[in-house]
Write a structure and sequence with these properties.
Length: 112
């Protein structure tokens, strides 16, 4: 019984000690110039998020109108990502293509 209680206390102590490190690592996530260069037009959003290690924040969303026709447009969104600089930011535009999902249509960065 004593061994089980000791193991439980050690496990609890280790999980509490690890929690602040995990949240600190999450707070340090940002887009680097090398990661920005890897994102290309036509690339799926999920792949961009894996490259950047963050999903960013959706800042603009436009619903589509007759997507896939010659006179309509597909849903679009712009996502904003943090950079290491206090004043820098990265913007990536995505469009939801029929059968492909969200893909990159443009990108822009201010490195501050």
């Amino acid at each position: 019984m004593k061994k089980i209680l000791t193991a439980l206390i050690l496990t609890l102590g280790l999980s509490i000690a690890a929690a602040p490190q995990a949240s600190a690592a999450k707070a340090d996530r940002y887009v680097t110039k090398a990661e920005f260069r890897q994102a290309k037009k036509g690339m799926p959003m999920k792949r961009v998020h894996r490259i950047f290690d963050i999903s960013g924040k959706q800042t603009i969303y436009l619903d589509g109108f007759e997507c896939g026709t010659s006179y309509g447009f597909c849903p679009t969104q712009t996502r904003e990502y943090r950079t290491k600089s206090k004043y820098g930011t990265v913007y990536v535009d995505f469009e939801r293509k029929p059968g492909k999902g969200w893909v990159v249509t443009g990108k822009m960065a201010f490195w501050g």
